[in-house]
Amino acid sequence: MSLNTATGVDSDLSxxxxxxxxxxxxxxxxNESEGSDFIFTESDGxxxxxxxxxYFDNTTGEIIAWVNFPTLSATSSTxxxxxxxxxxxxxxxxxxxxxxxxxxxxxxxxSTGTVGEFVDATGNGNDGRGGGGAKVGYNAARxxxxxxxxxxxxxxFKGPTTT
Length: 163
Prior knowledge:
Layout: E1 2-3, E2 13-23, E3 39-41, E4 48-49, E5 51-57, E6 62-72, E7 78-79, E8 81-83, E9 145-148, E10 153-156
Antiparallel strand pairs: 1-7, 2-6, 3-4, 3-8, 5-6, 9-10
């Protein structure tokens, strides 16, 4: 897979998470149903890249992943390889998001109003709760509902933001 970053970027990007989203029948062959056997590498096929699997469906071959690139060139394409059907590997989504990210919520969970239900992918522990919290006040009528988002799933937020 080749990423064309040469369009609309003025200078090289470093330590940059990139969305990788596609569907392919070959991905149905992955050994692990949650995609824990995926490995993303630089163009040398050896240098592993930190990644987070946001969504993987082994029945359709759809994957939504965030891959951190040490450097993305502003003047040329960047190749990335994805390997799968290996052993389960450990990966830490917090490695994808550098210290500039305070919180990353993918909002692909079903909201119930439970404390910490929206998990912070950065590892900073800024988990969220549908329906309000300490500053706004919790109200079950404000619990958001799972809906289609721009990339994958999202949340439809409802109700007033003040008590």
